[in-house]
Amino acid sequence: MTIYEKLVDVQGRLKAPKNQRNNFGKYNYRSCEDILEAVKPLLVEHKLALTISDYVDTTQAPMVSATAKITDGKDTIEVSAQAGIDINRKGMDIAQSFGSSSSYARKYALNGLFLIDDTKDSDATNTHGKTAANAVNEALAWLPDNGDKFNNAKSALKSGKVSIQDIRKKYKVSKKVEQLLND
Question: What is the pLDDT of residues 86-144, one digit of tens each?
């Protein structure tokens, strides 16, 4: 199995329930730790290593960027996410502010890597009169005509493990990109 096939299997089987509760906001959520606890057995099964790293950028407003990477020892797939840091947040010292933003960015990097959908708010569920399929498609990013995302999609397509319809579930695909994928 290629690393992409392993990742697709992990994405399809991963169940990371929202085990945390925000009583003030009256909603359930999943933490970075919840995701890690759920994904570890699948990573072990596929002999994949997961690392998460942070980078703090203070050139403008303070921000932390977290990168989640999986590797099979040969190939690597990575996803990054960012979160702002409020150094004057009430009730937190500066270390807690950085830690909170780091945890948030790490969680969303993991969400991106493992295709965990965290959007259950009214904007995400309101289709504004469109069909559900159209609303989902509009939320997808366009698959670029080059780069890692394109190369990963092309490799997965050529391996026969995914179809163009599977790729369209993850990305919007232009006619030009579809043609390049099939070349």
Answer: 888 888 898 999 999 999 999 999 999 999 976 553 333 444 444 444 444 455 778 88
Residue 34's contacts (CB-CB under 8 Å, 6 or more residues apart) are 16, 17, 18, 19, 20
pTM above 0.85, yes or no: no
Query: What is the location of CATH 3.30.390 in the chain?
Result: 3-121
Q: 69 to each of 16, 38, 49, 120, 178, how far by Cα in Å? A: 18, 16, 8, 26, 27
Judge: domain 3-121, CATH 1.10.10: no
The tokens for 76 are: 């690597």
